[in-house]
Amino acid sequence: xxxxxxxxxxxxxxxxxxxxxxxxxxxxxVKPTGWSPRDTAKAVYQELMEQAGILEEETCVxxxxxxxxxxxxxxxxxTEITCHALGADYLLPKVHTIIDIGGQDSKVISVESGxxxxxxxxxxxxxxxxxxxxxxxxxxxxxxxxFKKLLEEGKCCSLSSMxxxxxxSEIVSLLxxxxxxxxxxxxxxxxxxxxxxxLAGRVFVESPILLTGGLADFEGMRKVLExxxxxxxxxxxxxxxxxxxxxxxxx
Amino acid sequence: xxxMKKELPQVFDSFAEARKNGFLAVKKIKDSGKxxxxxxxxxxxxxxxxxxxLVSVSLCSTSDETIxxxxxxxxxxxxxxxxxxxxxxxxxxxxxMYFADLVVGETTCxxxxxxxxxxxxxxxxxxxxxxxxxxxxxxxxxxxxxxxxLKERVEKDFGVTITDDNLVDAIKxxxxxxxxxxELYELSTMCPPPITGLRQLQILFGSQFKFDWQEKTDEIxxxxxxxxxxxxxxERPVSEDAPRILITGCPMGGVTEKVVKVIxxxxxxxxxxxxxxxxxxxxRQCREEGDPLTNIADHYLQIGCSIMTPNPNRxxxxxxxxxxxxxxxxxxxxLQACHTYAVESYTVKTFLKEKNIPYLxxxxxxxxxxxxxxxxxAGAFVEML
Lengths: 251, 385
Known about the structure:
- The structure holds 2 protein chains of 2 kinds.
- Chain A is α/β, with parallel strands linked by helices.
- Chain A contains 8 helices and 10 strands.
- In chain A, β1 and β2 form a beta hairpin.
- In chain A, α2 (80-91) crosses α8 (242-249) and α3 runs antiparallel to α6 (181-200).
- In chain A, 50% of the residues are buried.
- Chain B is globular.
- Chain B is an alpha/beta fold.
- In chain B, 50% of the residues lie in helices and 11% in strands.
- Chain B has 16 helices and 8 strands.
- The N and C termini of chain B lie far apart (58 Å).
- Chain B has helices at 17-31, 46-51, 67-70, 80-91, 95-99, 110-119, 137-158, 164-185, 197-206, 213-232, 257-265, 279-282, 292-301, 312-324, 339-354, 371-384; strands at residues 36-39, 55-58, 102-106, 125-128, 244-249, 269-274, 329-335, 359-364.
- Chain B folds into 2 domains: 10-160, 3-Layer(aba) Sandwich (Rossmann fold), CATH 3.40.50; 166-384, Rossmann fold.
- In chain B, α7 (137-158) crosses α13.
- The chains are: A alpha/beta, B alpha/beta.
- Chain A: This is CoA activase.
- Chain A: GO terms for molecular function: iron-sulfur cluster binding; metal ion binding.
- Chain A: Pfam families: BcrAD_BadFG.
- Chain A: Its cofactor is [4Fe-4S] cluster.
């Protein structure tokens, strides 16, 4: 019987699922986590099965992400740090550094052949996370897709607050002072990148570097990050699934 | 001489059963005529209180219950241990703090030093001037004279005389305690260890709150015997494959047990504690021959706390324990706003890197809000071992 592995990475913002058939990605699915990580994970799982046309009995499910504890149908639970390392190595073989900007935390992981050497995560605060970016976008009345477009011109203004709560009032002041949304969006991204750089400073950062997480396809952010790190930063089309892929590889 | 406190606090009736029992237990000691001395730090020479036949107890608090009350007087970005301890003093919620006739503080970290000034308004307080160097003649002389001053304060406050014979006897008794607790935690050098790290911590922590020396030492002896017998009978509470973790950093116990729990829930086992709850205070014996007060002073001054600069003794002990306990990884717990341990963590990280021992620093406080993040960090660390 061929080996079918499902990895579910249930983050604070989005629940990502990947189905691997003989170590190849056969199906992917992402849904907003919402209020019930368990139900969302189940829905993601079922959709993966439908996409791949597979029966439940044949699969092995591994859960990761902060919602992993609630996913009772998983056979194994592994932390997202280990999974990101494995998944990143799958997407970009020989990767040495992973920068993951997640919904509730950001992390920089140093890896060797898919194995974690050391890692840094941000403290219990939204600075430098997807949540910070999302809240700031909301303050400017745009959704994340529109926000991404605002970054295209590469404009920027300085935003001194890293705290999500303080940044919120700073954005209000900047808007009142006539700054464009493009400039403020650039400032928000700078702020996220600065926070990530503080984490990176405590880990041995070495090329190749892969950017993962829900914001990986924000080209404007990747560019800023690349300037700050001083090394090329790679993105894969499946970057946001890195954790889920790593989980499936652990099945 | 001071008036010893024997009455229950006014808020006593509002306490839950367990807390009431705690108060009644200390009241019983007080009613028997014994004085109680409270202290905060492993540098405090308990032999002096023991020699005066006083009961001594640690006042370092380990819960966030009284932090809101403490933050009325203290800044919120201060170490939780300091805030919590002060909070228990102002709310009369800790039987030991409440019944302490004398509270002994020490000049260790900046936060505590300034907190003691406020505490002095509420309690009968004595401060030991602890030097931050352990090796110069001047530092040693200062510390010795501070212990003489403490002895005199105890004699005056409690109307007793402490003789050299009393001190020698106390040194011997404390050495027995140290040796027994060391024997107990060294059981975890075995593979797999006969007890979990959580149980080891609870025994070490709990031993601070047993006040009868004979009972305490008997209990530790019987704990050692029971653990050994269970192990010989084939009981294995810990898997042979569990990665072996040493915990270093700030003092532990109470709510910070959460750090041990997340490590052990991730499949590892804590085998040793290089902190004030564990090896730091049990590892060495105090010299029994010669002038007792000099011996006590020399013994305590050599404790390797991060407030010392430089602090070579911590690294000597840490390195030795890593080898002795066959440690696979070290987790350092630093309490929020504990500057000396937080800064020294860089040196610990470098020290362990040279030895090729993986290291993780976890910063936490007395809340339980960070359990999720702690368990992800600890989980990932255990997975990478």
